[in-house]
Amino acid sequence: MLKLKPKFDLHRDVVSDILRKEASVCRVEEYSEAVDARILNVERDGGILYSWKGATGTTRIGKYDPNTEKNKLLYTFDKQVCISSCSLNKEETLLAISLAQNVQGQDHFRPMSKCLTLLIEIYPINNTKVLKAVDCRVKVQFLYQETDRRSVLESHLLLLTEDGYVDLYHVLLTRQEGYRVVMANPERLSRTAERIVEDFCWVQWDGHTQRFYYLTHKEKFLLRCVQFYPNHHCETMLELQLELPANPFRTVKFVNLGFDHYHTEQPEQELVRMQVFTNRIERSMCVCYSQPQKDKQELIYTVVLVHKDCSKKFRVSLGCDEQPPPKAAQLHPLFISIGYYIVVYLQGVFLHCINTRQHEMLCHSLFLSGHEGNLDLQCQSANITVLHGEGEPGARLLDLASGRIHTAELSPAYLLQILQSGMSSRCPSSKTDPQRLAALHCLLVYMGNDPNLELKIIAWLCGNVSTFESFDQIQEFILASLYRIGYEKSLSLDKVLPYSSVFEKKEVPDCLLQVPGVFCTTELHIEPVFKGRARSLEGFWSELQWNTERTKYLDAVPNPRFRTSHIRADWEKLKSERRPSSQMNHIEENTKKVLSMVDTWCLDKKPVPLFQEEDHQQRALIGLTVDKLRDHLNRHLPRLGKKKIDSLVVNYVAKLLELIRHMLESVWLKYKIGPCALCLMQQGSPAEWSVFHFMFKILESTQSLCLPLPPGYHTLFAVFAVRCLPHHTFLQYIDQGLLQLTETFVSRLMKDLDNSDASERLKFSILKRLPEPMEQRIYHMWDHPVTSASISRDYVRTLLEKDNKNKGFAFTSRDKPGFRPEFLPLTYLANKLSDIEEQALNPLEEQENVDARFVEETALKQTLILLGFEEK
């Protein structure tokens, strides 16, 4: 599920270089003794601080730069010491170190009796200042302030103690002899300390965002966040109440503040494991914590979605009678943040990939149990540390035992494998539908910018159009892809755009509502309190606050998410209108904007002939969709402004049409469909039948959601239908409304089909099914007695409408050649037409004069039909 890539290897990138340096110090060709290299900290710039035992009884500290892939010696102690915390300032002039005393070089874990914290000038004087000498652990961390100045003559250091307080030291520097940078007045350093926090039981540092979170408890547990700014001002920005056990931590817990190799809690001693993740791009914040149960039969973990103003508590069963319960060391899961997914991983038991953007239903989060959820880790998950870093494509996992750092990303190959896996003999397909739906959304929304990946998904769609009953995969493909495209344009569209057709169902299938072994409860309105002043509540914090407020508003509004099926009533009403109106003109203007956005470059060279004809019904639906979606966004997101909303909506519908064309082009190329597929005289091949079937599924999916199709789609579909279906089935498709006859298709049919009996019967059957306005334009193209009869009837009707002189019936015989007086109504009609024809203009100027004999016979036949003496 997670693809691990090696990013750093302590032995490969550091130890080999250390051995060369020690060999140089000892003046030997090869140094073979153990150096005991250990990672101490990872700074904001990616630099890795480490220590090792020197050959002469020293302890050295170095830094590995991942950008240059080079190592640098920072400082050397003239004896072996136990370093429990270490940090380097951005300018690499100061080194803060906490030493564990009285450990006597033992590497096993045991409580420390005393800690000595030093501030050292590492270049050039090596002056040392004692900051703390206390009987508790102390963590040190420099701030990495952003500045445009080339030379910064100040540094700022955080000291976090096990006694539960945080101090901030402002270290002023001075330049000597033009290049020496040293501490100014080191004897007054303690006076610069500023107390930031008085009491905490848990703290987490986030170097990328320069903020730390801490948990405090008086009457209730409160999570607070302190933000540091470039001018070194800090401010408490957020307070959030959490529901935790009475004593969540036996000792103060430090997260992401370096690695103490001499004091580490045993996993079974942890009551609660807790981490905070933020994402600047998503403007999201998630608080994750786990609570193992005493009976070890289930695990409870909570993910607080601050940006969604809700909290989700999951209760997962830890196996069955056949499997032994996990060991105590395995009861705490790993929390890993990858994009907007939170991965909860309990080794050997389950992997839960939680969708923090589409969180309403369990089926949009992927849950894998047993061996399916195992990661390719070479160590126990209890030895893995997640390195926090905002804005990175994947998570970084550090294995302290081996000294390796991996980047972890979601694997598209594994997700495709979930989609492509067939039905298992052990469980019906409905059991795997939630997994496939979650995998599909992860591929489309999270990884959807990869064109090659999209082609693989479309290839999967082509071969599985009738596989699932619980969801329509073509609808999911369309809506999820459009959701991603719209969300990339504006994050505000998150709660108002549709992303799944599951919500369109009147009754959602049970298999999508429940995941076996997973129980979820949701708490709405967690009420985060933003504490920053108006001038400082900007950037990430401003957007996060707006997200939570918008979520509260939209949760209180019925149907905040746009549903395309709600257009159907207006669409049916619009189709029934026969005369142009102001609304129709407005809708046509919308359509013109959309089609101008569609990629029409080199249409004649495109494999699929779309967007090359007028399709009045689809043009109307395109414009109506724009109108309704624009009204929806203006109602719920007025902050965006009408101009931007109009641009977003037009782009959204244009991308919808292009997405459908892309699906057709992909299947067209897959089956190598050539120009001969558009010839109506040939029967369809198996490849063309597959394309027709896929087009039918697209049509079925879009019709149920009332989504528009590209102009020309119905013509293309009708061409494949004629080639692939028996004529009687083709006509049934028309009668059932599954196939829409277009003027372009019928015109080609009348011209291209031969005059065989079967073709003539098909033409006549289609002509009977045409609406009257289209019929008037089509029957001139068919050289057949049926069309001639239609022309005659229209000609008679036209002449009679122009005759306003004679109102009565005058049965007078006239001696005109070719007219027989035996049948008086016919004689009268023929005489009447003859008189009118002499005075009237011929409405069919481009055709030959009407044969009076033929008119007489046609009128007689029609009269007999009306009298019931003859059938049609």
Q: What can be said about this structure in brief?
A:
With 872 residues, the protein is of the alpha+beta class.
Structure, explained:
The protein has 20 helices and 32 strands. With 872 residues, it is an alpha+beta fold. Among the domains are: 564-740, no CATH class; 791-867, no CATH class. The strands form seven sheets. Strands 19-15-16-17-18-32 form a six-stranded mixed beta sheet, with no helix packed on it. Strands 10, 11, 12, 13 and 14 form a five-stranded antiparallel beta sheet that branches. It has a five-stranded antiparallel beta sheet with strand order 20-21-22-23-31, with no helix packed on it. The longest helix has 29 residues, at 642-670. It is elongated.
Distance between the termini: 68 Å
In total, the number of strands is 32
Beta-strand residue percentage: 15-25%
User: What number is the mean pLDDT?
Assistant: 82
Helix coverage percent of residues? 25-40%
Uncertain segments are 105-112, 423-430, 807-814
Main beta sheet strand tally, sense and closure: 6 strands, mixed
If you compute it from the alpha carbons, what radius of gyration comes out, rounded to the nearest whole angstrom? 39 Å
For the largest sheet, list the strands in their spatial order: 19-15-16-17-18-32
Number of helices: 20
Structural class: alpha+beta
Shape: elongated
